Input
Amino acid sequence: MTKTTTQIQGRDDASLSRYPNFRSPGGILRGLDYAGTLTFALTGAVTAAQSGLDVFGSTMAAVITAVGGGTIRDAIFLNRRPFWTEESEYIWMGACMGLITFFVWPDVLEWQKEHKAEKKMKQLEQSGGSDDEKEVYDEMDAALDTLDAIGLSSFAIIGAQNGVRAGMPMIVSAICGMATSTFGGLTRDVLCGRPIRIVHSNAEIYAEPALAGATTYLVAERMGARPGLRIGLAMAMCIGSRFVAIKNDVKLHTWDTAQDNLGVAVRKRPTE
Output
């Protein structure tokens, strides 16, 4: 077996090591990928549990959120076996995190609720009693958003890398990056009967930073940048644009269904 074939099958080269390490950019990226997998599994389990799913359903949703994007990328876009059939640690990480989250997270949420109430009281005291209806954004929210952004960017980069390895055109590789980082959540939302986040503007933009990060990686790769530089640029683009979206509540434009007199599927006659 040639070295090139080994690298492609084992996903172990300068751009992505097989296991996390601090010796190469690919090893660091793999570590961030593991962190993103655990974070996505956690948020998937929380979303499922809050949607009424039981412990099995929430654990399944955790695994789907963690590996669903890469599964769709491999099975549909790249026409090959899903990556977790060879790297089964991703299934174990998703399942264990989902199971732990289901039983532990209610206590965490209760603690966060009390912490936010205390912080709200301090803000009221400092503002002289004027009530600000804006929700308190605490350290836990910031930590989860940071970990989620890291997972989003690392998944986007790895998805783009898989497209490049498979010989896909740049636009297809960019879509592979976006799909890897967001289609697990898309599948989770369908499973939980919720509006699909990446195509509804009930929250700030999410898929667009992933697509920007994947595109940045591919452009840097096309220009001959070293692995560390192109990974760093892509991470900065994805994480930076994600936090700009969070800070400024950036959402895409949608139709005002009441103003435009739109039904679910047909246009209604304007009322007098």
User: Anything to note?
Assistant: Residues 213 and 238 are 5 Å apart (CA to CA).
